[in-house]
Amino acid sequence: MVQVMDSLLSLPTSPLFTLNPHTSSATASTSVSFSLQPPTQFPPEPPEPNLRRPNSIKSSPKPKPKPKIPSNPLKNLSTTTTTTSNNNPFRVSAPAGTTSTSASTTHSLASKLRLSSKLFPPPPLLQDTQEETQVSEPEAPSPEPENPEKFRQEGKIFVGNLPNWIKKHEVAEFFRQFGPIKDVILIKAHNETHRNAGFGFVIYGGPPPLPEKSALKAVEFDGVEFHGRILTVKLDDGTRLKGKAEERARWVEGYGGEDCNNKSKWHQEREGSRGLFRKVLESEPENWQKVVTAFERINKPSRREFGLMVNYYARRGDMHRARETFERMRARGIEPTSHVYTNLIHAYAVGRDMEEALSCVRKMREEGIEMTLVTYSILVGGFAKVGNSEAADDWFEEAKQRHTPLNAIIYGNIIYAHCQTCNMERAEALVREMEEEGIDAPIDIYHTMMDGYTMIGNEEKCLIVFERLKECGFTPTVISYGCLINLYSKIGKVSEALEVSKMMECAGIKHNMKTYSMLINGYLKLKDWANAFAIFEDLVNDGLKPDVVLYNNMIRAFCGMGNMVRAIHTVKEMQKERHRPTTRTFMPIIHGFARAGEMRRALEVFDMMRRSGCIPTVHTFNALILGLTEKRQMEKAVEILDEMTLAGITPNGHTYTTIMHGYASLGDTGKAFEYFTKLRNEGLELDVYTYEALLKACCKSGRMQSALAVTKEMAAQNIPRNTFVYNILIDGYGFLLTSVYL
User: Fold this and answer.
1) Do 694 and 673 meet the contact criterion of CB atoms below 8 Å apart?
2) pLDDT at 319 exceeding the cut of 70
């Protein structure tokens, strides 16, 4: 299953677009040119003799030649580089008797589904036997004797007389001296699944004929001592795979019912509970209680069920329960595979805990488990989410060295990492590199590039990507239009955002919560409260229910208007709708009361925030301290500072600067310099606002010599003087002259 997933993710596609730095542009910045490159087509896949269909059913015992199944088309497709005249990588030759469609009507998704269906072909019934099987019930076929050597896998050896407690990585460490190991299979005991049955298989990897040579070297050490046991080492004769193939053939042909009926009641209940769990997982993934209950009802879950459960928790971002399920699997003696480890790493990446994700990677390497392209893609995406583009680049380069070719998913993650850090030059270079590799990107990469250009405010290139999206045959979605609305809202062109909104509605695409929030944010930046409320009414009329983000925006609007009563009422309405308020919900209300001088109301809202389960942040405490210093209530401001320290929240530079400005207003130079010393001793950054507070304190108390000393220190720290600094000095000297004159 892991190989199939890796093959699907490594499927090469047609190129996306080219970012041409030599194209002329009206601006000085590097222009972007998006052009389609000719895709490539792959030849038909060669047959693989190891895969066999079951024998055809006939009433007469006359043997017929068995049909051959082509090899895995996805696996061969990833390494094929030969092109044909049609130049279409998703073009698949039609079966006999069918009419081929034109290249313009062939869709990549349909071709992928067509290829995927070949991995699990339906039970074949030849045309000349269909009528006979409908007339009479056929008897079970007597399969002709086949040579087990046909089922033998190159580079696979049998290892017997192993200790029951041995682990995979220990076996791999011993046999790695003969060649690179692809996989180690230890057969579990029937009743004690935490112990081995005493034998297993080692499969060597590498390009042919390296696996076979490695296996022959290992066989020469038959009878070697290993942890006090004399090992039996010999080439695998294919008997085990032959038995599995015959059993599968009987089940596919429909002659496995007798064995199914002979299963014990325990096995039947276990199979039923496993099937119910998979059904619930597919049909009701949002009902996590039902999913967990279905999983707990399975008696002795297998590696597959544990892996599905770890993946379920990973998609929900519940890394703690994912880890718990993983450890439960290991406690039962089930060794994790690369697929299970990848799911656990995905859980930590979604939870933004990349340290634990890297610890899982180290554990994989210690156990000799190879990282797949999916694992690398998840690591790159995880570091992209936390804004660590350097680490994302490192893992991307390692993936390029170990897995070729790469796919659009990992390229999309690394492009997203650089777009989030506003490094659009690197993102454009990655797009060109992806094009050169012949990889066609999905529409998500277009959206990522548009979002990156939005963050740096480059309207021209954002529009170029949007037009290129349509030229490449993609239909703009609500996300495509949302990127443009977000662009115009951020740069203050709300009228243009409304034009995009109308264009989207004309295309038959309805607004969602995010597009409405973008429009409201645009009006809030312009302090256009009336239009912000008008957009909110449109949202409600469309039948959408406001979420936490939208409620927070409306609270900001009410606070901006000075309607604090309505803002508090919105918080209560939000709680009635079972939305949990956040710190951002209460911040504008506290700021509003503090700036209005109503500190009693501000402290009441602060207590209300704590009772709602919100943990105060440094910004919340700074808002209270600012209000108290403006009212010159320095004792209460210092009490809030002490309470902040007791709560385990470290004051920042803004906190100390606000306290200094408060004492400067009172002319208390000693206290102002005391907190200036604390700020410098704690290693916080000194800026012009900090020195403004010192100058204000010195000038207020008439100590102009000290004020000049402060300006000299500013010059020594390379902090430029602004207009406020000179105004403070002028006011200080003016106050001094007035005092002397009087």
Assistant:
1) yes
2) yes
